[in-house]
Design goal:
There is one protein chain. By secondary structure, this protein is an alpha+beta fold. The chain has one domain. It contains 3 helices and 8 strands. The strands form 2 sheets. It has a 5-stranded antiparallel sheet with strand order 6-5-4-7-8, with no helix packed on it. Strand 4 and strand 5 form a beta hairpin. The longest helix is centred in the first third of the chain and has 11 residues. The radius of gyration is 29 Å and the shape is elongated.
Length: 209
Amino acid sequence: MVEQVPGWPGVGLSADEFREVPHFEWAPNLKYSFAAGEAISRFLTEIKQGRLIARSCNNCGHLLYPPRMFCEECYRPTDAWVHIRDTGTIETFSVSYLDVDANRIKDPIFVGVIMLDGPDFRTREQGRQRMGMMHYFGDIKKDPKSSTGFDIRVGQRVKAVWKPAAQRTGSVLDIVHFRPMKPGEDPFPSKSEKAVAKPKSAKKKGGRR
């Protein structure tokens, strides 16, 4: 108190006088722990193990990724944990010549949204549910024929590149980036890819006996 309050007699204490008042000084060494919630905590734990996980809703058939404990389609609790693949399809992408601090850079950064592959827990191995994840793309080759100058496009199939297990911390950045798939890696190969993988056998030539 530095001023008298009407009806309350008294004078303010100086700093030196205040130190003489009986009191207890304590410098606590407290550590705080912040919980990400049940769904995201499990999500980050699984990422540290090199796995991606979603939640399934048995009522409407959706997979929710990142996982949520409550279905946004039918407004009810989700039912089960479902591991999904670390492969997907490029939905959107950007070729950026600015870094995260908006500084001009020589080599571009590739970033965009990947629609991850199922499985669809109702019809396994069929279809690709729209579960998006924004991340970096890497191992992108130059392509002078492309409008961007690089071999990257919407619809391109990609696969996650993970950090070594000892370097993971439970972060989405435990995935270094997504790279274009190599032949034979796609769990959902197209008809043309299947045809290349299994070429027709040549007909045997033979004459009449």
